[in-house]
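Reply to dn_fold:

You asked what the input looked like. This is it:
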Amino acid sequence: MRIAIKSFIHEMEGRLNGYVTLLIYRYANLCVKAQPMALLSAEIIDDEVGVMKIEHVAGVTMPDEYHLRLVPFDSRIIFPLCKAIKKEHPEFKQELVMPEDGADDEQRHLILTMPVVNKDRRDALLEAVDTLYDGCKAKMDKTCADYRLKLEKKIVVLPTDDERNEAKDALEAKIKTYQDMADLNKTEKVKEIEEAYQRYLDEQTSKRNKADEAAAARGEHAGRQMRVGATEE
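and this is what came back:
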């Protein structure tokens, strides 16, 4: 394939990659499971240093799927850090973990808990997933249509059908790659939401079962007391 055609297809690929990357970032900010990427937009404002990003002021780890742990490099920055996160993600539950037994103050860290996915949040998240996907897909479709048209004009000068078909096939292969990536990310986000919703339902069921067991135990205890009282009479 000629260098000019390869360069042309690579140009289109860059645009499609940008759309998919933005979709991935936006999905990360529909916070269901913990994702450090969701903190990229947070800005910490310090009177001396100025504006800083999370990675400049704290280490970020994932204790489990639904929590982030932030350890500030300087304990003095922890409150501006909390403020910055609350501004970007007010739905996160923040817990400041203090050192035990008078340990070094530098051991203070922040635990972020992802919001519970109940039915209302599930519905809102699924709607947002569709909206973001549709926006990405619309941009991709327009770009692909534009590049298909431009390619038709470029391959007119190619001497053989084989070369022209090779160029078309290469373009379509790249288009399919990025369309598949967008589809896969949507599918995975929907699965993530549904799993979190099922987790919520399971927790509610467990709580109800425990409450029923406790009520049954109280009833049984009360029944025994009544029987003992009647026997004494």
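The two ends are 103 Å apart (CA to CA).
Hope that clears it up.
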